[in-house]
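Journal club prep, shared notes

We agreed each person brings one worked example of a sequence with its structure written out as tokens. Mine is MFS transporter. I'm keeping it raw so we can talk through how to read the token line rather than staring at a rendered picture. Sequence first:
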Amino acid sequence: MKSKEKFYYSLTTYINYGVTSIVTTFYVPYLNQVVGLSLSEVGTVVSIGALFAILSQQFLVSKFSMRKNKKRFIIIHLCALIGMIVFLMSVNKTIIYFYAALYGIIVQTIGNVYEVYVEEIAVRKNVEYSEIRKWGSIGFGCVVLLSGTIILKYGFKTMHIIGIIMSCIVILLIAMKFKNIEADGNPNRGKLIAVFKNKNSVILGIINILIIGTYTAIEFAYSTYLIEITGNEDLANSIYSKSIFSRVCVEFISFMLVGKYLKDKKPKKYLIIAFLIGTTRILLFSTGSIPLVVLGDQLHGLMYGCYLTFLFKYIREVVDDELVAGTYSFVSVLGSAGANFVYPHMFSTIQRNFGYTAMYLVGFSIMVISLLVSIKILPKGKQSIKQL
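Then the structure, token by token:
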């Protein structure tokens, strides 16, 4: 890959994940603080969005994989994202469930479509995916830190307007600087039925919803948890934004080090290490101590850089090439939207009846048991492809 091309891919990834930080990281605080939803109501809204993401993501990735003009597909998707940001600025309790459905279809799917595109570019250009993706991490963190300050001084509306401007920049960069990647013409590429028939894909999906799913779903309570343990909403928002900025700086370093020093290591081993780091994070959350909670949050950066890099590598080792995009989408949607459909109501019920500590300890227990199971049942890399 030419250095100029790599620069534009990295810059676009930086800005794109900055937009992602606005529409995802501050979604729950916005619902809670501006729309006025309780934690239980937020859990319901998140679950609705997750359900529609589950129903739509595989379809979108399949369509994306077969498109000859993939740039146009992503641009249309980003235009829809801009519409969702505008809609969010005026949403209220009356229409929040309708918005949640659209949020799942448009917002929760856009990250995976973009990741599949950039990862495929990296593979075709013989570049480590982590070399491009790491800029998304730092972009996410920088915008989160800036957004926290903007919210305190100017409110959520200003932050959303900035998100619209950034989305327009991403659209222009993709239109002018990204090369198009054409589909290979394989009719099975990305199809859900082909993924379901692959035993390795199914096993990885089940493990992902149990470990990464629990890890992801329990994240929805972080901002309200900080409010409870600090007793001050403004202080909690400040800690929240700074903590997330710090953790994505760790994530940036993690991507960089993994890409440089661990690129030839066994994917299964380091995928399990990533699971272990994530499990430790949830344990630290259960302590209720602000320093330990913030320290635990930093482990996300370490975990995610390792997890995402080796997840792609692992998938490429245990499934055929034409199933990589579909398997990644399937595994990812189970670990994010699938989990957010299954777990938030359960966790919010535990929190309401027994408190945050009990909620995090339950999450920790699920992850520990699933981690031990994963060591045994995850297939080894570079083995024959198993069909169900």
